[in-house]
Amino acid sequence: MSTSEPLPTTLESNQDELYKKICEDYEDLIETLPKGKGWWVEHLYKHNGFWLAPIMVKNRLLLHTYFKSQPSDLFLASFMKSGTTWLKALMFSTINRHRYTISDHHLLRLGPQSTFPLMELEFDPTTDLTHLPAPRLFNTHLPLTLLPTSMTSCKFVYICRDPKDVLISKWYFTSKTRSKDLAPLSLDEVFELFCQGISECGPIWDHVLQYWRASLDSPDKVLFLKYEDLKKQPEVELRKLAAFMGKPFTVEEEEKGVVEDIVKLCSFESLSNLEVNKKGVNDFKVVEVENHLFFRKGEIGDWKNYLSEEMKERIDRITDEKLKGSGLILGSKV
Questions:
Q1: Nearest to 57 by CA among 165, 200, 219
Q2: Pick from 160, 163, 204, 161: which is nearest to 314 by CA?
Q3: What is the dihedral of CA 101, 112, 117, 191, to 10 degrees?
C-alpha cells in the first residue's frame, strides 16, 4: 500500500471540482501533520489526536463530503485486530438470518470480509451503496471524533480487546501485509511505537475511551462489547447484539437453536477451516490481503508467549493511567 497511491476513481469523479478540491486539501493537510513510523505503511500522520495512514486521512475527508448516512445504518467500530472479523460474521449472520440457511450461507462461499465494507479503505465518491438493503452494515477503525456527524447519529457496535493481545495480533498481521520494500519491524520496535500511541488509529486507549464514553452517554446508540466476554459467553453476547440491532431472537428461534447455530457458524474454528478463508485474497481497493491472515489464533492471553514481564507491566501501567476514573477495565493483569 503506497503512501502516495491515489484513490481509484472514474473519469467523472476526476472531473468533479469538489473531488479535486478535496484532493488538494488533502495534499496541503498532509504536509502540515506530525509524522511517525507506520506499521503497515512507511509513515503515519497525527490528525486531530490520532495516527492515520495517508489513505485514511484522505478517505476521512471524502467520507465527510460524500457519504450520506441513513437512520437505520449500523456501524461496526473497532481498533484494528480487536475481533473485527468475528463480529462482522456475527452481525451479518444475525441481520440476515432469514436470507440464508446454515448449509448454504454467504460465509461458506465468500468469507466475513465480503459482508460489508471498511469505510476508510473501501469508500470513494464512486462507491455505489444503493444496492445495500436496510439496515446497511458498515465497518470502521476510525475513532468516533473523526467520523462525519451524520454517521454518529446512527447505531454503533464497538468491540475492544486486551491491548496486549491487540499489540501481538496487529504486529503479526502488519508484518505479513507490510510492503516488501520496507524493512520489517521487530517486536521491540512496535512495542515502543504502541506504547507511544503511534499505531494505525492509535493511541488505542483514546480510541476505546471515545466509544466507551459514548456508550455510557447513549446506550441506545452505542453497544460496547469486549472480545473476552464474547469468547467466554458467545450466546449471551449474541442475544445482546441482536436486541441492540433491532433483530431480537424470537422464542421460536431460541427453541430451534438459531442462536447456537449462528455462534457455531461464526466460530474461529469453523471460519478458519473453510476453504474460502484458507486461500484467495480480499481486495480493499488500496491493498490486497490474503484471507488466511484474518485468522491467526483467536485466543485470549496469547501475549504471554511474546511479551516479557517488563513489557506487560508497562502496557498495564499505561492502561491503568489512561482509563483511570472511566469505569472501564481492559484485559487481564495475570
A1: 200
A2: 163
A3: 160
SS3 content of the chain, % helix, strand, coil (to 5): 50, 10, 40
Closest CA to 64 of 134, 151, 132: 151
CA distance 94 to 245: 9
Q: Cα(112)–Cα(100) distance, rounded to whole angstroms?
A: 14
- The residue whose grid cell reads 451503496 is 129
Looking at 43, 47, 64, 141, which residue is catalytic? 141
What integer pLDDT is reported at residue 6 of this predicted model?
40
Active site residue 292: no
Name the DSSP letter for residue 288: E
Task: Please tell me the distance from the alpha carbon of residue 271 to that of residue 295, in angstroms, as a whole number.
Answer: 8
- In sequence order, what DSSP letters do the residues of 20-85 get, joined into one string? HHHHHHHHHHHTTS-EEE-SSSSEEEEETTEEE-HHHHHHHHHHHHH----TT-EEEEE-TTSSHH
DSSP-assigned letter for residue 202: -
Instruction: Pick the closest to residue 329 from 248, 212, 221, 235 (CA basis).
Output: 212
pLDDT above 90: residue 114: no
| Distant-in-sequence, close-in-space partners of 268: CB < 8 Å, separation ≥ 6 | 86, 295, 298
Q: What phi and psi values does residue 129 have, to the nearest 5 degrees?
A: -110, 5
pTM attached to this predicted model: 0.90
Residues in the chain: 334
Give the tens place of pLDDT for each residue, 133-160.
Answer: 889 999 999 999 999 988 888 999 999 9
- Residues 242 and 188: their CA atoms lie apart, in Å, by 40
d(CA 164, CA 307): 8
CA distance 135 to 118: 16
- For the chain, helix (H) and strand (E) counts, in that order, are 16, 9
How confident is the model over 235-288, as pLDDT tens digits?
A: 999 999 999 999 999 999 999 999 999 999 988 787 777 666 657 666 555 556
- Give the DSSP letter of residue 118: B
Specify the DSSP class assigned to residue 138: E
- The CA-based angle 254-86-52, given to 5 degrees, is 145
